[in-house]
Amino acid sequence: MSNDKTAATAAPAPNFLRNIVEQDLATGAHQRDGLPSVITRFPPEPNGYLHIGHAKSICLNFGLARDYGGRCHLRFDDTNPAKEEQEYVDSIIDSVKWLGFDWEHKGPVGAGTHLYYASDYFDQLYEMAEYLIKAGYAYVDSQSANEMAANRGNFNTPGTNSPFRNRPAEESLQLFRDMKAGKYKDGEHILRARISEDAMASPNMNLRDPAIYRIRHAHHHRTGDQWCIYPMYDYTHPISDALENITHSICTLEFQDHRPFYDWLLATLSAGGFFQQPVPKQYEFARLNLTYIVTSKRKLRQMVEEGIVDGWDDPRLPTLVGMRRRGFTPEGIQLMAERTGVTKSDGWIDYGVLEGAVREDLDPKAPRAIAVLRPLKLIVDNFDANDSVECSSPVHPHHPELGNRSFPFTRELWIEEEDFMEVPSKGYFRFYPPIDGQPGARVRLKYGFVAECTGYDKDENGKVTAVHVNYFPDSKSGTEGANNYKVKGTITWVSAAAALEAEVRLYDRLFTDAQPDSGGKDFKQFLNPHSKEVVTAYLEPSLKDAQAEQRFQFERHGYFVADRVDSQPGKPVFNRIVTLKDSWAAK
Questions:
Q1: Catalytic amino acids?
Q2: Model pLDDT for residues 462-506, shown as the tens digit of each residue
Q3: Which helix (H) or strand (E) holds 170?
Q4: Peptide bond before 278: cis, by omega within 30 degrees of 0?
Q5: Residue 303 contacts residue 526 (beta carbons within 8 Å)
């Protein structure tokens, strides 16, 4: 059911859902011929792109099925044609696969492909709605939307029965059929459930004659113009679960108050002969609330449409397409999902937990490379301008089997601007010039030679344009002579002659506030002006061959990925995934 990507996560921790599943397995609660005893589902609506919160649900549903020998279905809740598009379907399929999961089941029972759409069940959903009308459990209401809202009451006031609540079943049935035939406009009628005689006084607002079908004259991305009435989610979801023999229907906490209707509907339809026991059971867990992001589809869309970000796959967004482009790994996201646990109480998880999980995943497998992000020219005055010396370093310091990479040492190099100070601060161990008759600083050029600063050049504006040094030919790293030089500073560098010039995008958190849209705050007031910085960097020459989505650790800077969209053969563009350690501070 899953590919090898899922193996990189931490061992699953016990939680209340695992306890429920294990108890059900022990008692045979869902033992049925030809079916696994654990069947879960992930049911997204194809009206937008998935985000990190969905990833938690994906990992939970697919992970439970994987760990207990079951299967997980991907089912699209495509019952609102006005907001749904094939683009979103394709993106969701791609994102779930990228996270490391699929809906193929290869077990001894129930093998096959389990990709479904709620629209697959439109005929059955309609048939069951007619049954509910005939049996007195549903009626067509002809109130306006405003009248219905007013008569529904609120948490402190009981609702008022619709004047159409006792409409004869035959009349409701004919109206419902006429609705299906397209004889009425949107909103002219609606089909509502009648759960009990006093349902409109229920303290649970979801039981006050909930709507189960509405008129929508809209083109559907799969069924075209075949239908002009569409079932509501609360009606479609439990029936779809039952049709697919789901055993454990796992939802987030906001659906807790919907569970009584879920149970009532399946019990009622089972009594009508549509389903056999056991029917699915719904369980709720706390959604993932991650700091420094927003996950509201409306607000994400607003940022895209207003050009605040560079599209749905902007690497600063918490959309899965954005996180993938940023360079976050599926294994890192799975590790975060496991570490944040499964509970029944809401809470906030610091964004650093996600970044830490990604670092932990990348550290043992990302090859190392050198990049100079804010370049300053270093001139080795006593090195022949026509000469070159090969230097080498491990591809990965903890995996010698991967071998070494090599790069040239030449007369002109690039170093970081911060590796030189005209007047050094206390404890500064990088290059600075001779001061008060004392020689300049000696620094090791990592994997190369020790060099001593002799001076520097400035332009007409007083900006340092080059640093001059002399090197010690017998100090090369890896040789016996290297031990004769004791220096406190070591810096990275690349050859100016051989370096790859590349665009590097330094991404950071999109917001400066941990909860930018909580408590009625305007999230746009907390946009981080430093969330994206584009620099022209110089990289070691081997990175010219970097493939799209290949990840590296740029020594001292962090983890980077070759952008999957803008990288070209021989001309990669890099995105910073995360820094080497958590150093977040709003600027």
A1: 45, 287, 297
A2: 999 999 999 999 999 999 999 999 999 999 999 999 999 999 999
A3: helix 169-180
A4: yes
A5: no
